[in-house]
Amino acid sequence: MEVSVIVLLLLAFVAANLPFMTRRVAGVWRVANKHFGWQLLELVALYLLLGVLARLLEGRYSPVHVQKWQFYVTTLSLFLVFAFPGFIGHYFWKKRGI
Fold it and tell me: One Pfam annotation, family name (predicted)?
């Protein structure tokens, strides 16, 4: 496996868990109670950002292949699986009120 693919997968794992690890919206605005809507919006934004990065990396090495909807559903599902540890840590392991 090429190094850029491994780095992209590690970056995807970190990005998928990032919305659940901080109380800041987009890493900038601190809010008292960051609800699930903000976290979902951040997940979608980070998924799209990583998709653009992956497309740029693919374009550097070979012609970019046209993908259909099945590819995007699969990669979004993988991204959500990557987000599972952060979700569990945020909603089930943290004590209420902290």
Answer: DUF2818
